[in-house]
Design the sequence.
């Protein structure tokens, strides 16, 4: 089978899922994994669908298949953590979510779930710490989305590119930060702050 066909069915399943057409989404995801069972993303999407329907056993099986395909799939660890938290299995949720944030420190949802799971297990200091991380990431996500939206209308605004670069740098997304500083300089060759940040050791 052509793996590309599996990804096409996966994309169709995502569309159905967003539209709330869950039976069609399940059919599309199932066909996708039949065509390409090595894609962790597809299994994660299937797990999310089952979790959304409170079908915990099938959701867990799908997330486990995702990890069998790729043990570094942060979204699968996140999915399992969310699933266990939903079932009030907080100690197991913490273990899964810790793995998720270790693999993807920018996973906003995992930080939120981890903070709440720690609070449920009467570890308030850890809970507050992770909820603070969540709040910081959520604020950054909103700012990035706003700047990207502004760039659609003002693509030649050097300051917008620079501001995005600063945010990406704060998140240690250094490749994205460097690109944005370069784009700022391309639009304003006298943009000293962009040159300064670009010259920093990465």
Sequence:
């Amino acid at each position: 089978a052509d793996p590309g066909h599996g990804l096409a069915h996966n994309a169709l399943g995502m569309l159905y899922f967003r539209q709330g057409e869950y039976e069609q989404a399940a059919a599309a995801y199932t066909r996708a994994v039949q065509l390409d069972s090595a894609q962790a993303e597809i299994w994660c999407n299937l797990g999310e669908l089952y979790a959304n329907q409170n079908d915990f056993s099938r959701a867990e099986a799908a997330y486990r298949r995702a990890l069998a395909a790729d043990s570094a799939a942060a979204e699968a660890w996140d999915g399992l953590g969310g699933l266990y938290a939903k079932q009030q299995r907080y100690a197991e949720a913490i273990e899964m979510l810790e793995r998720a944030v270790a693999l993807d420190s920018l996973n906003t949802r995992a930080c939120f779930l981890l903070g709440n799971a720690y609070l449920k297990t009467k570890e308030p200091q850890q809970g507050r710490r992770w909820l603070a991380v969540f709040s910081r990431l959520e604020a950054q996500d909103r700012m990035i989305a706003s700047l990207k939206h502004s760039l659609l209308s003002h693509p030649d605004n050097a300051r917008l590119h620079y501001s995005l670069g600063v945010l990406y740098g704060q998140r240690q997304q250094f490749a994205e930060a460097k690109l944005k500083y370069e784009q700022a300089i391309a639009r304003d060759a006298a943009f000293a702050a962009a040159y300064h940040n670009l010259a920093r050791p990465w």
About this structure: The chain has a mean pLDDT of 95. Residues 124-153 form the longest helix (30 residues). The two ends are 42 Å apart (CA to CA).
